[in-house]
């Protein structure tokens, strides 16, 4: 039976190669778009986004005690506190759907409850202050306000629903013994630990600070002008802390945990970006699916238009802030305001690469339920918004 399976795989691969439509212009363009997108992703997001995120995730798994995670995000933690902190985390991080994955994996594996962890997973890329301001200024204050309110509500509701749906499994996970730890004596003071993590988060945030709008001379523009100095200062501060406060064995354990996250997540992310680029292309460029089909399917405010927009957004990759120009182009092509909000609520929080990684972290069933919840809630929110704002 195994030999037959191998034969079928080889035969299928041969048929794919035999009939590969390389002479088709749309197919060859889609292949180029896939490679161009993964090149852009590697240049713009791996070194300054993912690598710092991997180090932060590694630090969480090594230097943050399970007792601390359980205190704020565990099953017995104060629900109001845990969901409040998780739901507004994106205002600090300003990361994309892929960069948040190592951070989510870090707190989830340290014992965080599924609900607060998922609330953090959604809010990380969805509640980006700069993106919300950009949405309001370019696409209108109604969409900006609806996005801000919807993202906070989504993170809490989806987290609570995931907790309730998988309550039995979560109780078994928490009672398994892996997370039943008491207070752990810390090798460093709380102040030193906070400064250590703050320096890494500061580098992640300011190294990726988005360019403000043309003619904007406010605080966002000033921060952008000096972001290199701020990121550099945080990096130098981190180096000094590591030299003064950490032992060689601790640093070795930290880099080992960081490498483990990179091995688990990076190959799936790059593979997912390739597929996403092949299907949908980059901003202003088409993949194998023509953009006119997309624009035709998301006009008006019908159930189908909102559902299609939510599903498309869930699988399409959006880097931080890129959803705004993409949406502007779609709205100029006739996209309704309801489907536009649905895309804003589903897109930044999900993507094909992030879905592939999530499956490896929390399993197929939880990942499918999470994606379905995001798509359904985004669809309903889009329909309500489209009916109110015409």
Label this structure with key terms.
mainly alpha; 20 helices; single chain; 390 residues
What is the fold's blueprint, element by element?
Blueprint: H1 2-18, H2 25-63, H3 66-73, H4 79-87, H5 90-93, H6 100-109, H7 114-126, H8 129-139, H9 141-165, H10 167-174, H11 190-207, H12 219-225, H13 227-245, H14 248-280, H15 291-297, H16 303-315, H17 323-332, H18 337-346, H19 352-362, H20 364-388
Helix pairs in contact: 2-6, 2-11, 2-14, 4-7, 4-9, 6-7, 7-9, 8-9, 9-18, 9-20, 11-13, 14-19, 16-18, 16-20, 17-18, 18-20, 19-20
Structural write-up:
The chain is mostly helical and 390 residues long. The chain has one domain. The protein has 20 helices and no strands.
How would you name the oligomeric state of the polypeptide chains in this document? single chain
Element order, helices and strands?
HHHHHHHHHHHHHHHHHHHH
Which ranges are low-confidence, i.e. pLDDT below 50, for 5 or more consecutive residues? 180-184
Major sheet: size, sense and barrel closure?
A: none
Tell me the span between the first and last alpha carbons: 60 Å
Count of strand segments: 0
Number of helices: 20
Number of domains: 1
- Sum up the overall morphology in one term: globular
* Mean of all residue-level pLDDT scores: 79
Helix content: over 70%
Beta-strand fraction estimate: under 5%
**Taking Cα atoms only, what radius of gyration do you get, to the nearest Å?**
22 Å
What's a quick, concise take on this entry?
By secondary structure, this protein is an all-alpha fold.
């Amino acid at each position: 039976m195994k030999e037959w399976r191998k034969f079928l795989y080889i035969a299928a691969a041969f048929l794919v190669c035999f009939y590969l439509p390389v002479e088709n212009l749309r197919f060859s363009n889609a292949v180029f778009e896939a490679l161009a997108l993964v090149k852009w992703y590697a240049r713009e997001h791996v070194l300054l986004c993912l690598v710092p995120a991997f180090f932060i995730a590694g630090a969480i798994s090594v230097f943050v005690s399970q007792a601390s995670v359980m205190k704020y995000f565990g099953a017995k933690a104060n629900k109001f506190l845990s969901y409040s902190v998780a739901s507004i985390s994106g205002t600090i991080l300003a990361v994309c759907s892929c960069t948040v994955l190592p951070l989510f994996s870090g707190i989830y594996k340290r014992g965080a409850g599924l609900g607060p962890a998922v609330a953090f997973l959604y809010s990380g890329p969805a509640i980006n202050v700069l993106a919300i301001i950009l949405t309001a200024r370019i696409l209108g204050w109604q969409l900006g306000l609806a996005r801000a309110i919807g993202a906070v509500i989504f993170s809490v509701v989806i987290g609570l629903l995931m907790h309730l749906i998988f309550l039995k499994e979560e109780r078994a996970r928490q009672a398994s013994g892996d997370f039943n730890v008491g207070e752990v004596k810390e090798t460093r003071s709380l102040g030193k630990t906070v400064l250590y993590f703050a320096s890494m988060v500061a580098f992640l945030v300011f190294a990726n600070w988005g360019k403000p709008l043309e003619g904007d001379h406010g605080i966002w523009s000033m921060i952008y002008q000096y972001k290199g100095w701020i990121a550099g200062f945080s990096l130098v501060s981190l180096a000094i802390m590591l030299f003064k406060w950490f032992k060689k064995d601790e640093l070795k354990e930290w880099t080992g945990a960081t490498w483990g996250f990179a091995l688990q997540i990076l190959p799936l992310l790059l593979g997912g970006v390739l597929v996403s680029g092949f299907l949908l292309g980059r901003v202003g460029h088409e993949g194998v699916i023509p953009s006119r089909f997309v624009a035709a399917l998301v006009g008006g405010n019908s159930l189908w238009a909102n559902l299609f927009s939510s599903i498309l957004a869930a699988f399409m990759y959006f880097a931080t802030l890129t959803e705004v120009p993409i949406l502007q182009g779609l709205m100029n092509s006739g996209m309704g305001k309801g489907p536009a909000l649905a895309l804003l609520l589903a897109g930044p929080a999900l993507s094909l690469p992030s879905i592939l990684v999530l499956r490896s972290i929390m399993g197929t069933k939880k990942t499918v339920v999470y994606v379905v919840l995001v798509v359904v809630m985004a669809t309903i929110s889009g329909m309500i918004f489209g009916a109110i704002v015409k």
